[in-house]
Amino acid sequence: MKWVSLFMCMVGLLVGCEGNEDTVDDGNSLNWSLFRGDASLSGYTDRSLPKKPSLLWSYKSGVRTVSSPIVHQGTTYWCDKKGHIWGIDLKGEPVFGYDLDTPVEAIPMVYDSVLYIGRLDGWMSAISLESRDTLWNFETMGQISASPNRVGFEGRKAIVFGSYDNYLYCVDEHTGQEINRFESGYYLNGAVALWKKHVLFGGCDSWIRVINCKTGLQTDSLLMDSYVPASPAIMGDYVYVGDYAGNIYELYLEGGKIVRQRKILAATDEGGSFVSVPAITDNRLFVLSNDRYLYSIDRIDGTIKWKYMLKGKVGESSPVVCFDKVIVCTKTGIVSILDTESGDLKWEYDTGEQIVGSPAVIKDHFFILTAKGTLFCFGKGR
C-alpha cells in the first residue's frame, strides 16, 4: 500500500443521526455553523452569490490551521493548530479569542452560542461564546480530528463525533455525559452528517456502516471497492460518497437499511480519487477529484454533464453550491466560481496561499480560510 493511500484512507467519515430538523441555518441568514453548512453535509445553500464578488477585507492570524471557517451570527470562527480559537466579525475585527492550550486540527461547531471543538489530546470541549467559560470536557482515548454534529432524539440533544480510539461517541450537549458509543474497529476521522435516527461512517476498511443513534447498534453495512477518504453527503434519503479508487456511490436508505445502491460514476484508468465531500442539488452532484477536475454529474442517469479543470492541485477542500453557482478552491490557493448548469467560469481569485478548508457562505458574504490562517471575506462590491 502506498503511503499516500494510507494517509488518505485515514480520513474516515461519519454520517450522523436523527432527522435533519436540526439544520445549521435554523432560519438565520448569518449562520454557517458547522462544516458544509447543514447537518447532512449537502454543501448546498439557496443563498445567491454576488455576480462580481469583491474582496471586502482579509484578516491575518499568522498561525497555521487545517480548519474550515464556520459562522455564527455573522462572526467567523476557527481554531488554529496551536489551539487558539479565533472570532472575527463582519467588519474584519477580532471579537473573540480563547486558548485551549493544546493542538487542534478539527473544525468547530456552534449551536445556541456554545462552541464545540475536538482536540488532538482526545478531549471534546464545549465553550460558551458569551461567558467564555468551558461548560464541559469529554475525554476519549485517541485524538479527535473530526468536526462534531448535533442530533436530537426522544426530547434530548446530543453531540456526535468520532475519535482515533475507534469509537463513535454520542454525548449529552448540556452535560457532556456519554449516551452511547459504537466501536468501529478503525480510526474515525471525518465530519458527521445527519440522517433520521441513524449514523453512517466508513474509512480505511472500505466499509460503510449504519448505526442506530439511540441504541448505538449497527443496523446495516456495505463493502465498498476501496478506502473511503471523505465524508458522504446526504439529500433526502440518498447518500453520495466517493472512494479512493475513483468510484462515486449512491445509496438509498429506508428504515435504517441500505435498500439500494449503485455506482453513479465508475472508476476509470484516466480518473482520479475522490478525497473531498460532494455537493448536492435537486438534480446534480458536484465532486472534486485529485485529477484536478470538478465534475457535474446528473443524479438520475449518472452522466457527466460537464467537467472543469482547475488551475492547481486539489486538496481536501470541498465544493459548495450557492443556488446556481458552485464555489471550489484549489490547494494552491485559487478560488473559482462556476455556473452550475453550464460549467462556465464566472469569477476567480488567487489568494496566494494554500487552501485546505472549505468555503462558508452567509447572506451577501462568503469566507475562505487559508492554511496560513488568513481569512478572506468576499461580498458585493462597494
**Average pLDDT:** 89
Strand line-up in the sheet with most strands: 2-27-28-29-30
Report helical residue fraction: under 10%
Rounded to the nearest angstrom, the distance between the terminal CA atoms is 52 Å
CATH class, named Mainly Beta
Mind describing the biggest β-sheet?
5 strands, mixed
Question: How many alpha or pi helices?
Answer: 1
Low-confidence stretches: 1-25
Q: What is the gyration radius calculated from CA atoms?
A: 19 Å
CATH superfamily, please?
YVTN repeat-like/Quinoprotein amine dehydrogenase
Give your account of this protein's structure.
The protein is mainly β. The protein has one helix spanning 3-9, and strands at 13-15, 44-45, 54-60, 70-72, 75-79, 84-88, 94-99, 109-111, 114-118, 123-128, 134-139, 149-153, 156-162, 167-172, 178-183, 198-202, 207-212, 218-223, 233-235, 238-242, 248-254, 257-265, 279-280, 284-288, 293-298, 304-309, 320-322, 325-329, 334-339, 345-350, 360-362, 365-369, 374-379. It has a single domain, classed as YVTN repeat-like/Quinoprotein amine dehydrogenase (Methylamine Dehydrogenase, Chain H). The chain contains 1 helix and 33 strands. Strands 2-27-28-29-30 form a 5-stranded mixed beta sheet, with no helix packed on it. The chain has a 4-stranded antiparallel beta sheet with strand order 1-16-17-18, with no helix packed on it. Strands 3-33-32-31 form a 4-stranded antiparallel beta sheet, with no helix packed on it. A hairpin with a 5-residue loop joins strand 17 (207-212) and strand 18. The protein is globular and about 50 Å long.
